[in-house]
Amino acid sequence: MSLSARPQRRVLIAKINRSQSFAGVNSTADRPFRNFSPFTPTVSRKTGSRVSRMFSMSHKSPPPKVPQPNRLDEVYEALKKGLTAYLEVHQLELEKLSTQIRESKRNSRLVSVAGKRDGQVKSIERFLRRLEFHASKIDELYEAYCIQRRLRDGAHNMVKAYSTGSPSSREARESLAEASKGYKEYTENMCLLENELESQLGEFHIRMKGLAGFARLCAGDQYEIFMKYGRQRWKLRGRIEVNSKQVWDSEEMVFLPLVTEFLSIKVTELKSLANHVVVGNVSCETKDLFAALPQVVAVDINDLGTLKLSLEVTWNPFDKDDQPSAASTVNKASTVNKRFSTYNQSPPDTPSLREQAFYV
Fold first, then answer.
1. 3-class DSSP state for residue 316?
2. Beta carbons within 8 Å of 331's beta carbon, 6+ residues apart
3. Does residue 149 carry a pLDDT above 70?
4. How confident is the model at residue 335 (pLDDT cuts 50, 70, 90)?
5. Where are the beta strands (DSSP E) in the chain?
């Protein structure tokens, strides 16, 4: 389904025990999750492929016209959890390096090694201070947002109270106008703060791992994957070769996290020049991607789960790829396998009118 289907989202994000899942979005009724183990298909890529960036940092998305406080609460909680995990991972790395330095200094032959690790320690310490400052800035923005929300709720109650009866007196009419003006002002402030907090969410680095389809994938099959995340787009094509190898024309994409949008993934099988069959079109939750370690997530593309998409997602809490080299190695030390659960996909091989309209 399209990501623009906002009105039903509140009902869809129900509380489900899925601590190791990457939840999907449903447009009609929730379906149970399928418990398949993650996979890592063999993928070969064309040489010279680089990270794609389909956005410019100087072009921010405009503030929303209607605030989404409930959604912002969910994103804030996930963001704080991710930042806390980031701090813990780098603190452990700092303690590990400090222990290695003390051991190296006891051995005169390892003095040069201790000097190099001293530089790594200082780099991680700077990165930790930056993380702490970043977390405090997000807390300040969220507190300011909550204040404006309470003021807006109070103004709304005043408007409702004054509108209940007929404001015959001039004082009542002036009070109603003042309350309405305050409600509009607080709403605008919430939208601005929501947009500012969205600009502090960092980056999602998504790496294509490949498709897995059990008996569905055959040598010679060609697929096109189209990802849509707000105004950001990523389209890539791949071919299944012999020995289950896959060749894709694009390797990585960097997406800016969004507060109210979901990641939409559409997979099309290229049968011939004029015969393209939509295999599946899914919309997925992204707030669970705020994690300290890279995550390999598996996506059910079609309704039966016979075709899956494997992605490796790495979250950088800052909006520029200037993470210190010593600290960046911490994230690459291990990878977490997660389930990228989705449901309510379009039936396989039967593209609907909505899917055809979605494909632009």
1. strand
2. 89, 292, 293, 294, 314
3. yes
4. low
5. 44-45, 51-53, 203-212, 222-229, 232-240, 246-248, 252-255, 263-272, 275-284, 295-300, 308-316, 336-340
Comparing CA positions, the residue from 91, 187, 102 lying closest to residue 132 is 91
pTM: 0.72
Residue among 343, 303, 270, 262 at smallest CA distance from 5: 262
Query: What's the rounded Cα separation, in Å, for the pair 354 and 350?
Result: 11
**Would you tell me which CATH number, out of the four given (2.40.50.140, 2.60.40.150, 2.40.128.130, 2.60.40.10), belongs to the domain 203-319?**
2.60.40.150
- The number of C-alpha atoms within 13 Å of 303 and in the hemisphere containing its C-beta is 13
Which residues touch 334 (CB under 8 Å, ≥6 apart)?
A: 293
Angstrom distances, CA of residue 328 to CA of 57, 86, 100 = 22, 11, 19
> 124 and 97 in contact (C-beta within 8 Å)?
yes
Distance CA 98, CA 110 (A): 14
Considering the chain, what is the average pLDDT of its residues? 75
Taking the alpha carbons of 64, 67, 70, 73 in that order, is the dihedral positive or negative? positive
Q: What is the pLDDT of residues 33-56, one digit of tens each?
A: 333 333 334 444 443 444 554 443
pLDDT per position as a tens digit, 240-266 = 988 878 999 988 999 999 999 999 999
- Cβ-in-10-Å burial (0-12, 13-18, 19+) of 359 comes to middle
State the DSSP H helix or E strand holding residue 146, giving kind and residue range, or none if neither. Answer: helix 111-164
What pLDDT is recorded for position 251? 87
Q: Hey, where are the domains in the chain? A: 69-199, 203-319
For the stretch 258-308, pLDDT in tens is 999 999 999 999 987 778 889 999 999 999 999 999 999 999 998 888 889
Given the structure tokens 């370690």, which residue do they identify? Answer: 293
